[in-house]
UniProtKB/TrEMBL annotation:
Listed SUPFAM superfamilies: P-loop containing nucleoside triphosphate hydrolases
Membrane topology of the entry: Multi-pass membrane protein
Gene Ontology CC terms: plasma membrane
Protein's UniProt name: TraD/TraG TraM recognition site domain-containing protein
Localization in the cell: Cell membrane
CDD domains recorded: TrwB_TraG_TraD_VirD4
Domain TraD/TraG TraM recognition site, residue spans: 422-540
Record keywords: Cell membrane, Membrane, Transmembrane, Transmembrane helix
Chain segments annotated as transmembrane: 21-40, 76-99
Pfam family of the protein (one): TraG-D_C
PANTHER family xref list: CONJUGATIVE TRANSFER: DNA TRANSPORT
Length: 606
């Protein structure tokens, strides 16, 4: 509504300036004069040069020698001038810091108007999340005090406050964070370190990453298992896992074959004839090997010789006549088609030809077998490491992760519906090393079983490439917690997030000048709380949090290296990284020696 025009614009501006100057002068002189009076009295008392003067702050500021005539000039200069001014400056600096933190949270960043406040996300704050933990975990029901780590997974601090925001142990999460935006230091590592139960981590890095940062700490909680078929951490083979243990049914064998398919081709290519046919052959051969309790490497021998009747006989002997008939039909079909199908299957499982990789999934003397059913009832940690684009090797990583989560689901059902303590599954670099085809479907029920997956992706499109548009949308929708970090460069996704955050009312002031003077009008308009360009420019150390049924919140991340015990963890991480380097050098030394010997023994030609 338009305001009444002022008769004179310049006169109004002059009064405003004068009033502001007066306020500033009072804000300085009032505290300074009181400090001068207090400082002068303290100086006189300390120097035994006079009694306590009456309260006359103005006199103390302007003419201190009248209040304390027997006090030396130097003493008064220090006590009634220098000390009060220094004290006032210090108080002003402290006030500025406190105000900055109040406006921008613990990190001092500017608060974003319109984002969730404390009351909007009460369900994720300590009081509510603790009450939820008591109801979800029978082991905490009668506990007098509950540690914060037992209540939920720390996501960060609500910006503008020091309130910790946690996801509960029935939530499932997707985190989309670009490289070096804090996904490992602020999400993966802190979550692993504080997990109350078993932990599963997939990763494509070792040194200086979640593996080295958590290895020693998790060893204190339980046993640490490392599956490193491509020697990312150059870990010694101290475990082996049987991927055929869950393949004694047609469904289980099909799931195992599906991991090899997903690791080899994108979601858009998995429906063509050759891909489906190659996957079917693998599932039939995996089933035969599992039923006869053979190692998975026998499948590669059968793939090399399609005419080998051993798998057909095994399937028939165990009552899988229909599956045997399907396999026979493929083997006895047109040679061109048969050879194409078998070659496709060979390519999918080619990693099993590598003896170093195969050793991790075949029985080994004096090496313990990793059993998922035992793991999910422990407080152990399983590190699954694979390189980007690992093909069949990453298929084994995905198969092992899937086996663990399926074992956890079965254990939860036996325990009355939920795991207590819950199991944490950090699927870092999931789109590269852990392509579980039906992961979006698993998201619909894992949280209710006490199995807490956090799938970490670098972009939304990366997830679409693996699970397709429908699959990624399903995972996004099923996630009760969504964390978005800095580095979102996809304009469509950034705009989608902006629309999800919503709009807010913004006051707009306009001023016009006419012959009768100056007039000001105020109107309200709707504006995006965070436009797409602001989401793209999110500073490192901050993240957006979308929780089901709540307003979007801005978080300040809490990297592990800023926590109180960071020094001890950093030292442990450094030791683990140096151990990886030493193992890599030791492994390379014999190869280098052999290469030098080969060069020496080669004949020289004129």
């Amino acid at each position: 509504m338009p305001r009444t025009p002022a008769p004179s614009g310049s006169g109004t501006d002059g009064y405003d300036i004068a009033f502001r100057v007066l306020l500033v002068a009072l804000a300085i002189t009032v505290p300074l004069s009181n400090l001068a009076w207090l400082g002068g009295n303290i100086t006189a008392h300390l120097t035994d040069s006079g009694p306590w003067a009456d309260y006359q702050p103005v006199e103390a500021l302007l003419r201190p020698e009248r209040l304390w005539p027997d006090t030396g000039e130097t003493s008064l200069l220090i006590g009634a001038r220098i000390v009060p001014i220094a004290t006032l400056l210090a108080l002003a600096a402290i006030s500025a810091v406190l105000w900055s933190r109040h406006r921008g949270g613990a990190s001092g960043r500017k608060k974003v108007a319109g984002m969730a406040k404390q009351k909007d996300i009460e369900a994720l704050l300590p009081k509510a999340i603790t009450a939820k933990a008591r109801s979800l975990r029978p082991s905490l029901k009668d506990a007098k005090t509950i540690k914060a780590k037992d209540t939920g997974i720390l996501l960060g601090n609500l910006q503008g406050t020091r309130h910790e925001v946690r996801m509960g142990y029935e939530d499932v999460a997707v985190a989309i964070m670009a490289p070096r935006s804090g996904k490992t230091t602020s999400l993966a590592i802190p979550s692993i370190l504080s997990a109350p139960g078993p932990v599963l981590l997939t990763s494509n890095k070792a040194a200086g990453d979640a593996y080295t940062a958590t290895l020693d700490a998790r060893a204190e909680a339980g046993r640490t298992w490392s599956m490193d078929p491509q020697q990312i951490a150059h870990a010694q083979r101290e475990m082996w896992w049987n991927p055929l243990a869950d393949a004694k049914t047609l469904d289980g064998a099909g799931r195992l074959a599906g991991h090899f398919l997903a690791a080899s081709v994108d979601a858009s290519q998995q429906g063509d004839f050759w891909s489906k046919a190659g996957s079917n052959i693998l599932s039939q051969l995996f089933l035969a090997a599992a039923l006869d309790e053979r190692p998975i490497t026998d499948v590669m021998q059968w793939l090399a010789f399609p005419a080998n009747r051993t798998p057909l006989d095994i399937l028939r002997d165990h009552g899988f006549s229909a599956v045997a008939a399907q396999l026979k039909g493929t083997v006895e079909g047109p040679p061109e088609t048969r050879d194409g199908i078998y070659e496709t299957a060979r390519q999918y499982a080619a990693a099993l030809l590598n003896s170093e990789i195969a050793a991790w999934v075949t029985p080994q003397k004096n090496v313990p077998e990793f059993r998922p059913a035992q793991f999910v009832t422990s407080r152990d940690t399983l590190y699954l490491l694979s390189k980007d684009g690992g093909g069949g090797a990453s298929a084994l990583i995905a198969a092992c992760a899937d086996s663990v989560m399926r074992a956890a689901t079965a254990q939860a059902e036996r325990a009355g519906g939920r795991l207590d303590p819950p199991m944490l599954a950090i699927l870092d670099e999931a789109a590269n090393v852990c392509k579980i085809s039906d992961l979006p479907d698993l998201y619909s029920h894992l949280g209710s079983r006490g199995i807490i997956p956090i799938t970490i992706l670098q972009s939304y499109r990366q997830g679409q490439k693996v699970w397709g548009d429908a699959g990624m949308d399903a995972m996004w929708s099923a996630s009760t917690i969504k964390v978005i970090g800095s580095g979102i460069d996809d304009p469509d996704f950034a705009d989608k997030l902006s629309r999800l955050i919503g709009d807010h009312d913004v006051e707009t002031k306009s001023t016009s000048t006419s012959e009768s003077g100056k007039s000001t009008s105020i109107s309200m308009r709707q504006e995006r709380i965070l436009p797409a360009d602001a989401i793209r420019a999110l500073p490192k150390g901050t993240a957006l949090c979308f929780a089901t049924g709540m307003r979007a919140a801005m978080l300040n991340l809490r990297p592990w290296y800023l926590e109180p015990d960071a020094g001890e963890l950093a030292a442990a991480s450094d030791r683990a990284s140096k151990a990886i380097t030493a193992r890599a050098i030791a492994k390379a030394a014999p190869q280098h020696h052999e290469l030098r010997n080969d060069r020496v023994t080669q004949p020289h030609h004129a």
